[in-house]
């Protein structure tokens, strides 16, 4: 099934939903930092943007989210690579589904998108943190798990890589589930509206 907006051709909705997702991604990250929660929460709806609106809005969401985080938090623009990888892997998973079926995306699609995003983000994000920031992401909440593992094994490189992957798997699983619920809600809204219009003709 192609993304919902290709069926609906609603540019205002694309703008609205992409902007909303950027705002929620930013607020999620800010919340995680405020309460020192050991997840990133900076791509909560990014996968849903790809599923609902397509790859280009997904990339805009990724770049927009990272721009705000770089501007107002301790994050850096270098991590925009991770955001772009998240939406790119989501698009690849959804594209593969489209080639095999014309049905709606399932929760499995979103979980696979989250899984590949987690692995890629864990590897690339850890490389950025280790090579550029000496193993420090600049986000105290995200460093908690790494610090805990380091306390046990006394090896910063292993702690950074293993902890980063674990955090990303948990973070992207949460993002995938939330994105799926938003996609399911959008599916109901889009097709309900479409059916109403068809009945009026």
Secondary structure layout:
Elements: H1 4-8, H2 11-34, H3 46-53, H4 55-72, H5 80-100, H6 107-133, H7 140-153, H8 156-200
Describe it for me?
This protein has 201 residues and is an all-alpha fold. 81% of the residues lie in helices and 0% in strands. The protein contains 8 helices and no strands. The C terminus is likely disordered.
List keywords for this structure.
single chain, 201 residues, mainly alpha, 0% strand, globular
**Separation of termini?**
25 Å
Share of helix among residues? over 70%
**What is the element string, with H for helices and E for strands?**
HHHHHHHH
Low-confidence stretches are 192-201
Radius of gyration: 18 Å
Q: Look at the helices and sheets and give the structural class.
A: mainly alpha
Report the sheet-strand fraction: under 5%
* pLDDT averaged over residues: 83
Q: What profile does the largest beta sheet have?
A: none
Query: Any idea what the shape is?
Result: globular
Give a count of the beta strands, DSSP E runs of length 2 or more: 0
Query: How many helical elements?
Result: 8
